[in-house]
Backbone:
């Protein structure tokens, strides 16, 4: 493995979708194609950023300042990501990551989304020196905002170990058990 490896939110999501994506991207160095769904999501994130600057995205905290598209990385944690938005509560010395998801609100928040918020909270704490006990997900299709605890962080480190093992040993992992995911996968022709 070349240089120091940094875990990203994309790696977390990819590993959870199918561990083989990690192998194709980081071992075989095959570029990951951007799907139509991702393009649509990026479009909506820009719209979210524009509207969030003018409106009260989090009505309970209307006066708290927000930062958008914040790049965070930590050499100590070996993690990096770009956070859609971070809301700062200087009075409590806390900061809350906000994700914009181009989807409807699910019955319950997916573990992958919780893991992504937890990773963002870890980086917020490390780089901004503020507590980050929770974050928010804005589901753009339904307009709902869901508050999510970010205190359960063990799964991130467990996934990071598995990803590191795939990359260092250069061994192709088993594919996902969910065959429907293979239909939308950008690596379906080489898997």
Residues:
């Amino acid at each position: 493995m070349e240089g120091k490896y940094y875990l990203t939110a994309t790696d977390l999501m990819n590993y959870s979708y199918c561990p083989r994506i990690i192998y194709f991207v980081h071992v075989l160095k095959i570029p990951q194609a951007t799907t139509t769904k991702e393009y649509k999501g990026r479009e909506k994130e820009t719209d979210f950023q524009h509207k969030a600057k003018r409106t009260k995205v989090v009505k309970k905290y209307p006066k708290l300042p927000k930062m958008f598209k914040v790049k965070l990385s930590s050499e100590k944690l070996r993690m990096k990501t770009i956070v859609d938005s971070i809301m700062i509560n200087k009075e409590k010395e806390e900061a809350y990551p906000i994700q914009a998801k181009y989807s409807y609100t699910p019955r319950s928040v997916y573990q992958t989304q919780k893991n992504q918020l937890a990773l963002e909270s870890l980086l917020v704490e490390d780089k901004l020196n503020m507590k980050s006990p929770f974050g928010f997900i804005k589901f753009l299709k339904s307009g709902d905002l869901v508050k999510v605890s970010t205190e359960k962080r063990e799964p991130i480190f467990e996934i990071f170990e598995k990803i590191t093992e795939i990359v260092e040993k250069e061994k192709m992992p088993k594919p996902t058990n969910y065959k429907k995911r293979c239909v939308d996968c950008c690596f379906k022709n080489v898997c």
Remarks:
- Residues 92 and 131 are 9 Å apart (CA to CA).
- The chain has a mean pLDDT of 86.
